[in-house]
Amino acid sequence: MAQADCNSSRDNRWLLNGMTALVTGGSKGLGHAVVEELAGLGATIHTCARTEPVLNECLQEWKMKGFKVTGSVCDVTSRTEREKLMSTVSSQFDGKLNILVNNVGILYFQRTIDVTPEDISLYLSTNFESAYHLCQLAHPLLKNSGAGNIVFMSSVSGVVSVSVSLYGATKGTQFNVFLI
């Protein structure tokens, strides 16, 4: 086989044409990069963000690049909004989802003695509960696709202490989430 043929077939195995993905928190940081990478490989993406103007700016940017990306405003700390998000994804992708990327997370640097009960609830609902619940909601869609994948954007802080104990505890829980 010619060298060009080898390179072509090697590149094709990474293509995601026909695949669908939901990336939470896709308007900033790592989530934004994941949306761009998956879309660049040919996947059709739906993403969410808390801030509509930022989301709309990203959607316009991706449209100009020729990416197939839609989005909706969603605060993943809200069970109702997560359910609405998954309903939207199910409708857009005909009841099938190939990739769920649980990217959303929060981190505030604060001393452990300064953490309030409200901080604990916010961290748990954002970094753990939202990802866990979205996995539950996505399970039928992932199963229907015949090729479902879940990615957790966790942190080394979940397994090694790096002076952000609450963040580490809530991100570390993601290492133990899986579907049967």
TrEMBL record:
<keyword id="KW-0560">Oxidoreductase</keyword>
<dbReference type="InterPro" id="IPR002347">
    <property type="entry name" value="SDR_fam"/>
</dbReference>
<dbReference type="InterPro" id="IPR036291">
    <property type="entry name" value="NAD(P)-bd_dom_sf"/>
</dbReference>
<keyword id="KW-0521">NADP</keyword>
<dbReference type="InterPro" id="IPR045000">
    <property type="entry name" value="TR"/>
</dbReference>
<protein>
    <submittedName>
        <fullName>Uncharacterized protein</fullName>
    </submittedName>
</protein>
<dbReference type="GO" id="GO:0016491">
    <property type="term" value="F:oxidoreductase activity"/>
</dbReference>
<dbReference type="Pfam" id="PF00106">
    <property type="entry name" value="adh_short"/>
</dbReference>
<comment type="similarity">
    <text>Belongs to the short-chain dehydrogenases/reductases (SDR) family. SDR65C subfamily.</text>
</comment>
